[in-house]
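User: Sequence recovery, please. Input:
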């Protein structure tokens, strides 16, 4: 049997070409956007949502649900110093 060499690279290149064509072909019903553009948009939206969530206060307390506190000194004993920041 004769050894064959180098044919795997040709198959790999053909596969990459078809994959690139699939990623760059416009999708119907998506305003002629391709898969790559949709993926980039979704990553940007996800990151924006993540950054918004990170910008919120770590511990938000609804003051209406807390029992009335007569002074701020009592409040400091109820919460640890880490939670107040």
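Assistant: Recovered sequence (85 residues):
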């Amino acid at each position: 049997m004769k050894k064959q060499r180098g044919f795997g690279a040709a198959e790999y290149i053909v596969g990459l070409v078809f994959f690139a064509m699939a990623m760059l072909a416009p999708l119907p019903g998506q305003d002629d956007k391709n898969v790559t553009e949709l993926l980039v948009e979704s990553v940007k939206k996800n990151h924006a949502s993540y950054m918004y969530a990170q910008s919120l206060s770590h511990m938000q307390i609804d003051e209406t649900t807390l029992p009335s506190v007569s002074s701020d000194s009592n409040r400091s004993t109820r919460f640890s110093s880490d939670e107040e920041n």
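Residues 20-51 form one domain.
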